[in-house]
């Protein structure tokens, strides 16, 4: 008779190698997730098509009707497209986690001397790599339709660092939702419930000056606007203002809150 797999306790995970072991486990599971990209290429293709459609739609359909003083609309638009691409791409972290738990992969992982956080962080790191590839495609499309960034090396470094941090922060939120909702369709719907309003009620696609007073006040201080404004300043070599530190502060705050809660929730589900 087969014996029941004994759950891995935090003590066993720590005994496996403390921080070094957790990092190793994370990299192993990251590689596992990345191997799925060539095996299921349509997922990556569809994720890449999404920002291309948004670039073309806003550039050629809505762009002529939107005034952006001080810069062309394409230059204004691309920061919003890149942040939206990363934010929407982060939804896959929660979807993948929900699918893994539904297929029973978590039960297999729990029988191994593995750090509990590695299951989450490995998938999130893989999604950050995937998002980076999609960002490259989006930038190339933007350049083809008139995007002309004036950033130097420091500006590009700051912009890339910010996008990676956004991917990390939003992936932790999505993973937490994946633990709560438990099925892929529900995770996707639950993420878009908060992502869509934050994205469109922001400076991603239109200046906030055109919004009604109440909405404008909300839009100017919510995380998407602060992040988009900071990224726009990085890419166009403009003064950062308070949005520079504000964008990083928002991301660090999101990670500081959502990551421990998600890890605790995952450990609770894995040991039930």
Q: Can you walk me through this structure?
A:
This protein is mainly α and 272 residues long. The two termini are 22 Å apart. It is a multi-pass membrane protein. This is Transport permease protein. It is found in: Cell membrane; Membrane. Keywords: Antibiotic resistance, Cell membrane, Membrane, Transmembrane, Transmembrane helix, Transport.
Q: Top keywords for this entry?
A:
disordered N terminus, 0% strand, 272 residues, mainly alpha
In short:
The chain has 272 residues and is mostly helical.
- How many runs of DSSP E, i.e. beta strands? 0
The main β sheet shows up as: none
With helices defined by DSSP (H or I, 4 residues minimum), what is the helix count?
A: 13
How widely separated are the two ends?
22 Å
């Amino acid at each position: 008779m087969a014996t029941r797999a004994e759950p891995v306790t935090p003590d066993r995970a720590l005994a496996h190698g403390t921080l070094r072991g957790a990092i190793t486990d994370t990299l192993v599971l990251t590689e596992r997730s990345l191997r799925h990209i060539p095996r299921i290429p349509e997922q990556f293709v569809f994720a890449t098509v999404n920002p291309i459609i948004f670039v073309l739609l806003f550039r050629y359909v809505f762009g002529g009707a939107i005034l952006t003083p001080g810069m062309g609309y394409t230059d204004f638009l691309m920061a919003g497209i890149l942040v939206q691409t990363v934010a929407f791409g982060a939804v896959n972290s929660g979807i993948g986690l929900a699918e893994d738990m539904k297929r029973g992969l978590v039960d297999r992982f729990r029988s191994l001397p593995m750090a509990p956080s590695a299951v989450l962080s490995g998938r999130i790191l893989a999604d950050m790599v995937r998002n980076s590839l999609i960002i490259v495609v989006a930038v190339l499309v933007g350049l083809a339709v008139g995007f002309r960034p004036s950033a130097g090396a420091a500006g590009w470094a700051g912009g890339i660092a910010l996008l990676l941090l956004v991917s990390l922060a939003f992936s932790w939120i999505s993973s937490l939702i994946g633990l709560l909702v438990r099925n892929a369709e529900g995770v996707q719907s639950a993420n878009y419930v908060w992502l869509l309003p934050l994205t469109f009620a922001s400076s991603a696609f239109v200046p906030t000056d055109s919004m009604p007073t109440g909405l404008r006040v909300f839009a100017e201080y919510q995380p998407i606007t602060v992040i988009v404004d900071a990224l726009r300043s990085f890419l166009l070599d403009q003064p950062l203002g308070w949005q520079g530190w504000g964008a990083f502060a928002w991301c660090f705050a999101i990670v500081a809150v959502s990551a421990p809660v998600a890890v605790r929730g995952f450990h609770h589900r894995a040991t039930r």
